[in-house]
Design a protein that fits this description.
The chain has 286 residues and is α+β, with helices and mostly antiparallel strands. It is 37% helix and 13% strand. Strands 3, 4, 5, 6, 7 and 9 form a 6-stranded mixed sheet that branches. A hairpin with a 4-residue loop joins strand 4 and strand 5 (131-136). The protein is built from 9 helices and 9 strands. Helix 6 (209-224) packs antiparallel against helix 7 (230-245), helix 6 (209-224) packs parallel to helix 8 and helix 7 (230-245) packs across helix 9.
Amino acid sequence: MTQQPPSRGEHLRTALTLAASGVPAMPLREGKVPFGNCRRCADNACGGRPNMKTPGPCACPRPCHAWAAATTDPDIIGSGPWRRAWLTASAVAYHPGGAGLTVVDLDNADAIAWAREHLPPTQTVPTTRGQHWLYQGAMQSANGVRPGVDIKSTMAYARWLGPGTGTGTTTTLPDAVRALAVKERRAVRPAAATVPAPAASGECRHRTPAFLERGIAMAEQRINGASSGIHAAVYATFLAVLSTHGRCGCLTEDHTARLFAAAQAKGETPRHCADAWNNARTRLGL
């Protein structure tokens, strides 16, 4: 007999069950992506990534800001716009880091073979194309740490594949997985971000070169001093720098690298840095 897909009501019940067990849940629409932005954040005005997989600084209690919308509050899940979203969702997702978990997402047979050779065994859940290996413990997420291997934990979401579908017992997050993310963060160069073209004169229109240096140093301090909401702080800082210096041609690749390095020291990945930089440029029309 062919297994029937879960009904819309079952997605809501699954979300409430996850929430009761301390796992932050969220709805996914077709294509395994979050629901569209709320009105205040239409067209990613808040600074989120265009595919809505990463939120901007807005704190709207709606299912439009990816992992940041995942919640364990049954009152939010079961009422208002959240309830309507669950009733039209195609799948359920969860925030692994919020549940104290890390998911090693293995996308193909080669990635699975590599994991079996290099990572300690743990609970394994089959996916459409590969496997999720679940470890107990949270860490910074990182994509593309190896061919076909992503790490999903804090500031990320993973699809919930249902109880009883996995094998093995969840074990403690090993140093081997943490090391993969460290290697990815060492790639500091902002290759994906294009520095604004210099002005025709090639000279900064501001009072002195010290004005730019002071601005970059203050931006680094602002990022370094952020104690929470790192993604929002990085985006806001990039936006401030570009709004002041983005049109006069004074920014160089070295300045951008300094900002990216400060962000990555706080846990942002090179991809998140590039996205935040390019989103800020788009917002300003650069």
